[in-house]
């Protein structure tokens, strides 16, 4: 192996924040190299510098031993560096070929020659096993296929070093497998891969070496075969972490939340939930597993009252919720943590204190003489911030300034502070790092021990299996089966998730 | 009533009406074709009115000073482009609210042109300056009925209509068009491919300003041969409506500009015939009513460029 790329003493500050504080990285030709770190560790910043999107405040980049100035992505592409971003950089109304043609060099000025591009895309598709129709509109492609388009886009431009930012976050287990095959083909073909991730399992599976970042500094670079998940987790977080939870057994209480043959539609007016029935008991966590977009969001919204119910019955402690407004449901003990914490769950421009108070803002003691009781609101926030270990200088900081994990803590704290009988929580740890994830899960266990009925909706199957007492699988708005984690093989769950097998309950 | 119907729909009326619609369409078409560039690159251009007004004044001044209307047109286009540059600085570099910047630019242009007009011409504005004439197309203009309608116009009218397929070709058939539209839909995507989003957007506001400026020049030199305070009188906004009704596409704005031109021509005809007993002020509202009805009724499903009106500013 020889050194293909070196980054030396890279520093990048955003105001006070030291995103990269003197990071060294070396990449060998033909390896798959993981950049591991929690959110905010500086992984993406470092790669954006390599790709020319950011300019480092200090440090140098060497390719094949020669120093280079990467002033913009065009330069990076010329040097053979191609990046696939976490949020795809595609133009939805364009076709695949049109997306690839954007700014492509060597084109005729007066005529766009898509036929040529389409042919070359088909070639690349075949060569690397990236199945894509070059004439398809990007907006009509699934997320997995869009990722293939992104990869082809940079391969088309002759990338030798492929940088992938959290590529598996949006993929199903099957698609992850396919992606890994593509990456291995690419390496066999002489390519090199830099793979940003915080998922330990996949790093162990696919990479040759791992560089661990924490708080903008490099902790270590290790050979994957010489390390373990546990060691990587410790380096990433900076302390011992639990990778498995002890299941807390609690006695089952009464039936709390109950759905009977519930139907509802999605925003487009198409049927989304088709005859779903289940009961959630106090002191249990019922998991809903399934691939994203199979009615999970609508299910959560119809329970909380945001979506209208078409038929069936939803009840809480025997009381029918069908006709109640979302606010009335809150008042009789329903908590809801929606999947879109920034858009729906929180008022991000408002302060933490305000977000924590908003549900009771018109009640005593949040209100005094008809005005906001700021003293109480701030005091309340202070206590919750301490209890939930929200990282912030004060309660007056706008929620938008917090990291995803801290936002989720604020949201969860707000819902729990209402002492709900039933808690519906959707995609609670999406995009969160291990530390925050562990905190959220422990909080759920604590509420479960208190006797709260918890409905956990998540497309992260690992999370469902680790946290739930009982699991239902949803596919196209219907329940495909029910199981207890650990008691059936994972393949069978996969078949239910794919809608192939339906088990009688 | 019978007599009225007959005269309204006589061929003579029809040909006169259509010819005049095309003439009145010209300024709208130039403005909205320019705005296709800004919209497609992601900029909401409210400043068309101001660009036209500057164009119309500078054109008259240029024509008066140099004694040649085409120098006036050229200078008018450049004045419009200059206004576009101001819009660019505000909405691209500074990242301010584009609706507000555009509106301010219009008010600024109104004040500036009135002032400059007083400085340049004093109270005794030149009643006539060298202006643009009608250039009948040889042979074609002799075709009965269609000849006078289609082929007896000013050069700028032919230019505007010929520009429609050219702009369409640029937008949809060239790599440049792909870049412009990518910047308007998903500037981040263009950025990650090494395209300078500000450069593309600046180019587009300059083009838009130039075309709107020429549009203004057509009004002052091609139709009236004089500059009057606030002479654009809302045509820039109608061009904006034509852009939306035309779904941000070159062929679309040809249709919508013609529609609004026709509404304007109709009210002028009714006015001049004096046949209907309707107050002039009501008739003058006709193009705007047409704009409102059209926007309310026929927008349909086409979506504007996804990033239109959103400044793209990132830290480096």
What are the salient characteristics of this protein?
heterodimer; A: alpha/beta; Rossmann fold; 3 domains; six-stranded mixed β-sheet; 22 strands; globular; B: two-stranded antiparallel sheet
What is the compact description of this entry?
Chain A is an alpha/beta fold and 505 residues long. Chain A contains 17 helices and 22 strands.
The residue-averaged pLDDT of chain A reads 90
The SS-based structural class of chain B is mainly alpha
The tally of helices of chain A reads: 17
Termini separation of chain B comes to 72 Å
- Number of discrete helical segments of chain B: 14
Question: Largest sheet of chain B, if any?
Answer: 2 strands, antiparallel
Binned strand content of chain B: under 5%
CATH fold-level label of the largest domain in chain A: Rossmann fold
Number of strands of chain A: 22
Instruction: Please state roughly what percent of the residues of chain A sit in beta strands, choosing from under 5%, 5-15%, 15-25%, 25-35%, 35-45% or over 45%.
Output: 25-35%
Widest sheet, order of strands of chain A: 6-7-8-3-9-10
Show unreliable segments of chain A. Answer: none
Category by helix and strand content of chain A = alpha/beta
Helix content of chain A: 25-40%
**Rounded Rg of chain A:** 25 Å
Order of SSEs of chain B, N→C?
HHHHHEHEHHHHHHHH
Tell the overall outline of chain A. Answer: globular
Number of E strands of chain B: 2
So, the CATH homologous superfamily of the largest domain in chain A?
P-loop containing nucleotide triphosphate hydrolases
């Amino acid at each position: 192996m020889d050194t293909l790329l070196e980054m030396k003493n890279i520093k990048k500050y955003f105001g006070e924040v030291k995103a990269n504080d003197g990071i060294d990285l070396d990449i060998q030709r033909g390896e798959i190299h993981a950049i591991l770190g929690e959110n905010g560790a500086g992984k993406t910043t470092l790669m954006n510098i390599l790709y020319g999107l950011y300019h480092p405040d200090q440090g140098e980049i060497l390719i094949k031993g020669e120093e280079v100035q990467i002033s913009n992505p065009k330069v990076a592409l010329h040097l053979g560096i191609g990046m696939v971003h976490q949020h795809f950089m595609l133009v939805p109304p364009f076709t695949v070929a049109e997306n690839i043609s954007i700014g492509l060099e060597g084109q005729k000025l007066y005529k766009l020659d898509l036929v040529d591009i389409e042919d070359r895309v088909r070639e690349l598709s075949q060569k690397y096993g990236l199945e894509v129709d070059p004439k398809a509109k990007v907006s009509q492609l699934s997320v997995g296929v869009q990722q293939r388009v992104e990869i082809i886009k940079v391969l088309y431009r002759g990338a030798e070093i492929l940088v992938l930012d959290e590529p598996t976050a949006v993929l199903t287990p099957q698609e992850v497998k396919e992606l890994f095959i593509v990456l291995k083909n690419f390496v066999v073909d002489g390519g090199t891969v830099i793979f940003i991730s915080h998922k330990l399992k996949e790093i162990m599976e696919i990479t040759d070496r791992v560089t661990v970042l924490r708080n903008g500094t490099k902790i270590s670079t290790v050979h994957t075969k010489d390390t373990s998940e546990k060691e990587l987790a410790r380096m990433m977080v900076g302390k011992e972490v639990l990778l498995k939870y002890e299941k807390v057994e609690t006695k089952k209480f009464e039936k709390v939340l109950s759905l009977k043959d519930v139907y509802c539609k999605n925003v487009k007016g198409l049927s989304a939930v088709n005859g779903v029935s289940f009961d959630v008991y106090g002191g249990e966590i019922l998991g809903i597993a399934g691939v994203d977009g199979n009615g999970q969001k609508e299910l959560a919204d119809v329970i909380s009252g945001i979506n209208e119910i078409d038929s069936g019955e939803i009840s809480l402690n025997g009381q029918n919720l069908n006709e109640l407004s979302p606010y009335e449901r809150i008042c009789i003990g329903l908590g809801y943590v929606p999947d879109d914490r920034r858009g729906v769950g929180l008022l991000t421009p408002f302060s933490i204190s305000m977000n924590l108070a908003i549900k009771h803002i018109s009640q005593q003691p949040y209100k005094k003489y008809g005005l906001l009781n700021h003293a109480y609101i701030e005091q309340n926030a202070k206590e919750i911030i301490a209890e939930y270990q929200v990282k912030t200088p004060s309660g007056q900081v706008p929620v938008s300034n917090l990291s995803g994990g801290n936002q989720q803590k604020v949201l969860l704290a707000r819902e729990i502070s209402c002492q709900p009988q039933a808690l519906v929580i959707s995609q609670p740890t999406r995009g969160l790092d291990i530390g925050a994830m562990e905190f959220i899960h422990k909080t759920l266990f604590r509420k479960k021990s208190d006797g709260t009925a918890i409905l956990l909706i998540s497309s992260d199957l690992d999370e469902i299996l680790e946290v739930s007492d009982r699991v239902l699988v949803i596919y196209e708005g219907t329940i495909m089966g029910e199981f207890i984690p650990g008691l059936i093989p994972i393949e069978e769950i996969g078949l239910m998730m794919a809608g192939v097998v339906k088990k009688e309950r | 009533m019978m007599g009225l119907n007959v005269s309204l729909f006589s061929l003579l009326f029809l040909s006169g009406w259509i010819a005049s619609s095309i003439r009145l369409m010209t300024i709208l078409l130039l403005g909205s074709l320019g705005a296709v560039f800004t919209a497609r690159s992601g900029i909401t251009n409210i400043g068309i009115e101001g660009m036209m007004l500057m164009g119309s004044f500078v054109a008259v001044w240029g024509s008066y000073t140099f004694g040649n209307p085409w120098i006036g047109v050229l200078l008018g286009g450049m004045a419009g482009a200059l206004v576009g540059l101001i819009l660019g600085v505000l909405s691209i570099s500074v990242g301010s609210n584009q609706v507000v910047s555009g509106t301010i630019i219009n008010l600024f242009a109104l004040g500036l042109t009135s002032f400059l007009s007083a400085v340049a011409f004093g109270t005794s504005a030149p009643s006539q300056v060298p202006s643009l004439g009608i250039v009948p197309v040889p042979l074609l203009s002799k075709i009965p009925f269609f000849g006078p309608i289609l082929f007896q116009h000013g050069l700028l009218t032919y230019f505007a209509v010929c520009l429609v397929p050219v702009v369409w070709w640029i937008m949809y058939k060239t790599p440049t068009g792909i870049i412009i539209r990518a910047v308007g839909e998903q500037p981040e995507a263009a950025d990650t491919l090494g395209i300078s989003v500000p450069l593309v957007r600046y180019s587009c506001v300059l083009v838009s300003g130039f075309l709107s400026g020429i549009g203004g020049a057509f009004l002052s030199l091609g139709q009236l041969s004089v500059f009057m305070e606030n002479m654009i009188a809302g045509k820039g906004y109608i061009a904006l409506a034509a852009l939306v009704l035309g779904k941000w596409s070159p062929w679309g704005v040809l249709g919508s500009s013609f529609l609004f031109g026709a509404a304007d021509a109709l009210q002028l005809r009714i006015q001049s015939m004096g046949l209907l007993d309707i107050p002039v002020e009501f008739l003058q509202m006709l193009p705007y009513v047409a704009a409102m009805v059209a926007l309310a009724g026929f927008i349909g499903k086409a979506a504007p460029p996804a990033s239109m009106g959103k400044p793209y500013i990132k830290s480096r």
